[in-house]
Amino acid sequence: MVIADFIPKNPGATLGFIVLTGIAAMAVGLLFMGIGRKLTARLQRRYGPPFWQSYIDVIKCFSRNSISHHYIMDLGSMMGLAGLLAAAMFVPVAGHLPFASTGPLIVILYLMPIGYLGMAMGVSASGNPLSAIGIGRALTLMVGYEVPFAVIMLSMIASFNTTGLLALHQIQQAGGWNLFTMPFGFIAAIIALQGMLAEKPFDTMIAPAEIASGPMVELSGKFLGMAFLQHAVAIFIETGIVVNLFLGGGRTIWEFLLKQFVLYMFAMALNGIYARYRVEQATRFLWFTAGSLAVVQLILNLLA
Amino acid sequence: MISLNIFSVSTGIIGVFILGVISLAAFGRVRKLQWVLFSLATLYLLFLAYNLYGKWGGAPEAPEGMIFTLMNTHLGWLFFAFSTGVTFLISLFSLSYNDKKHATGIAPLWTILMAANTGIFFAADWITFIIAWELMGWTSFFIISHGREKSFQAGIYYYALSLIGASALLAGVFILHSITGTFAIRESIQSASALWSTRPGVLYAVALFFCTAFFTKSAIGPFYMWPAKAHAEAPDDFSAFLSGIMIKYGIFGLLIAVLPLFASYAGPAVKGTPIFLYILGWVGGLTAVLGTLLAVRENDMKRLMAFSTVSNVGFIVLALSTATVFGLAAGIFHTFNHMVFKAVIFLSMASVKFRTGERDMHRLGGIGYRMPIAFFAFLLGIIAAAGIPPMSGFASKWMVFQSLFDNKLLFLAIPAFFASTAAFMYLYRGLHSIYLGQLPPRFANIKAAPPVQMLVMLVLMLMVFAVGAFPGIVLMPVKAALGADSLAADFMKIEGITSSVNLSVVAGIFMFAFIGTLVLYIIGKPRKKVEPLDTYTSGEDPADWDMTPEQYHYAYRFYEPFEKMFNPILEALSFEKWFDGFRRHIVRTSESFGRWLHRPGSGAFVLTTALILILVMGIVVW
Amino acid sequence: MTRNALVERIEAETGIESRPRYSNQIEASVPRERIISFLSFLKTIGFEHLSNITAIDWIQDSTMEVVYNVWSYSERIHITVKSPVPRGNPVSFTCMGLWPQGRVYEQELHEMFGISFQGNPTQGPLFLHNWKDIPPLRKDFDTEEYSRRAYGYLEEEQ
Amino acid sequence: MSDFIKVSRDEIMDGKMERVLDFFRARSMWMLYYCTGCGAIELPPSMTSAFDMERFGLGPMATPRQADILLITGYISVKTLKRVIRSYEQMPDPKWVVGFGSCPVNGGIYWNSYATINQLEKYLPVDISIAGCMPRPQAVLDMFQKLKNMIQRGEAVGYKKYKLNYDWYKKNQDEVLNREEPVFREDELFSAPPEQISGEKITAGGNR
Asked: pLDDT tens-digit profile of B567-588?
């Protein structure tokens, strides 16, 4: 009986859906990346690459030989992508999920770190100090944006008494968007999202001119491709979370993707116009500005 | 009526105690034999636990005419079984760890400590509890200061705090007895809980004393700093026991004594949680944050993990402070998980120290290339400690958060989130600085860990992963021990009010995704292995600059920006100076007393006065 | 103090005749034995900045000139002190005691001209990579021939 | 002394299967350029809004591990050559070298300098070169178009030539980088008549 509910009703379809979700997450993220590059180019008065450039880049990366310093590096890269893909399985897309789950937010927030931990393990096995510095900055920044995001989740609990993204999606489909009912939380979420996506002004972990693209300094060929895919899936997950939390989740898949797209374009526009924070400045900003906004939202929700 | 049955608890305690004394007295020369005896003792206790299962409560078995009473409660049995099991694995590890070079003579004392361990978990009255507690205290003191000067300083520090705790416990117990008239643990607590309305002041005192006692033992709140000293200076294999099991005695004490008192408090409440419990929760949360911040600053790997232990204990207290069934289950679940994953972390570090003899992380590096099993043990350990699926820590941390959400203690969850996210920082630092990065040439040809150590680590890794995928393995017994049928948790699935998670599905999805990435990895073009120093250096050849791997290993002051942010705060609120002063005071008084005793004649004086006193008392009694 | 006054003062106090050259420049020629004392004297009268040290190879009369360019902020006057050293034994004295930055200039001169400065501890290679020939800035070094031999062109087309 | 193994391009070109991947390689060329010479000054204009290089999928990369193209922008001194070779050998295959400006082709205005090499082809397999001092951004983009076509047709096989003739290249590199004996013999040197120094006492540091 216990094993029975572990095995889904029709395994074939569930398996297909899981694979489909994984591929879709990567594809959507790469598409967004391409269009984002186009947008950045237009902001800089350039023509910009075609929007399918990211696909070409990833395929090219996988078509090149690669170097590795130790098998731990390979293992870490694989762990990195796997963690993000696993997290993507729990994000409800317009209420659809590859298998029966509630879209538990805490599980997603704790499945993504295994991706980052894996990537960190891989790049620090490469033995380059620059990559270790980049990972150190990334983890510091992570403490910065996880705290406001957690507070936003708490305010959701305060209002709706659930952390399931699916339930939040249904609630917003019935009532209005949370964007209008909890604006401070939304602003905090936008700031935290900028930090999650590691776009400017929070891209101190990459810093190509400073620490030679930080964690990716030793990544070549397919490892770089996996890093690209990881970033793509991260875009999908993080924008998806915010859409499910604040933008009503969307009735159809296309509406959902559109909302994700708008969020990511906004992030890229900010990325195009801002300079880079130092890591402790970024962390302070995330705590004090975004965090205080989120706490205000939490207090409001508790009083309401 | 003392039962001569070999499966009875009292036989266990006394037998193990006598065994320890014998091995201490007789086999001082043959240390291997002492360790074998210790392993046999733990094995016997494990056997005892197996036999005691199901024989709950009943008449407290008491030797004839003695006030020592023992009772086999379900909860105590659970703690006893888990601690003994983990200790058995550690003892196997110690068998191979204590070779010619690393031998320490702590085995018999540790055996006696196991007797004390049994006593603490099976005591039915406060006298037995206190005696076992004291036995635990001084044996562990002697083990921590195992004949090394530095360790001796740490041991004195630890013992000073234990003195505070023990005396506070004694005082609390006597007050409790004076108001309830019984020494039996359950009855006294129950009857005391009824007195909140009539005699609150006395209960405040009792609760304060108990909290002091158990906080000192578990390094909660202002007593956060002794693990960093004691765990770091203790023998490496004992550190695993110290950090995994001994620090949980305070948790057990909170469970049996303090929580019932606080939960029955009828005064003001925060969202239905009695005010004292709420304060306890904040103490736990702040302890978690404090331990995390201090761990991020550490450069000594054992001190770092000791502070991580402090942070985890804070989590446990946070969960217990809700005093709901879910919260208690979460706390106990996290206690057992922490036993296992902290044991595996410390044992992995012990085998690294066994091979390298280094404790400073910036002097290590790249050890994982030479000792893969130790590396993977540490990796799984920190994944669990960070509370990341699919390892065991996630299930219990998820339950901790859920217990807070369910009671709407939302502000309490903020420090918890901060601590559990910042935990990634120091855990990753340990992974990078010890096991990854550049391998120093002087460690270029160290061997992998000995097979027995590897075996123990593998078993513990398996436990960590199995509990992560199937939390029911631990959660079911906990549920049974609490008699909590309302706890909606089965073998794979845990359901809180605000959310529910099926951890087997999470683990399965992760495995499936890993297979998918493996496919991607295989279809990619082949990879070429290069030398560790062949990295991007802007075209410079490190050899031209006489760059050695040690210099090239980025490990020292790893999180300098973060430290700069928090240093002022941490300097501001440091209890350490005060406690250092306390330790010095104790040392001075005891030394002066000792000097007075050693003065010729004074000993005789003491002896005669004692004799006269006994005479007088005898006459009076007669 | 004007340029001519400086010239006179220098001659009066050291007995070394110096010629005014351009509007704000003085040129003096000092024998190798007195160069350090002369430079220290210049520093005392306000020439506190050593702009650079270079050298000239007069191959016909087989001497090399070490040229110190010193600048005075107070007088806004630039003095060029030339001290000839024989080509056969190009040895002079270091001015590190007066200007610490002289160390690098002297090291460069040692590498490029083969002039060694007594008292300067760092006389190793500075710019050239694995140099085995005579110092390249000497007049008798045929750089075109060197380039042809060392980095010659490929004969045939790959 | 190992001779250069002459192979026709068709012998070492990839098979048909690789041609599919070459399509993607040609459309996403990431370049690594150290500012070895003045040529690097022509790259910012070709990247920024006037001639937008990124629209062909070209982009600068931070490290050799990530880059496909090694740009040699301008003259190469001997010291630079060492770094360039190390960077080239750190790049994973397939990789291409671009000689940028006249100096990598034949030394340029430094043709008779004792410090800069003359012909890059002796030390690294150059796939394509641009003449000019400096080449304008139009020329740069034109070069990248030609390189793109070469890669797409699988004709840019410099890295295979390097593998094939590694010891030949290595010999040339060693001639420059680790020379054992001087280039000029003693009797070739025109030296001034040695002049006897009067034996004055030289005290270290002179008279301060």
From this structure: 777 777 666 667 677 777 777 8
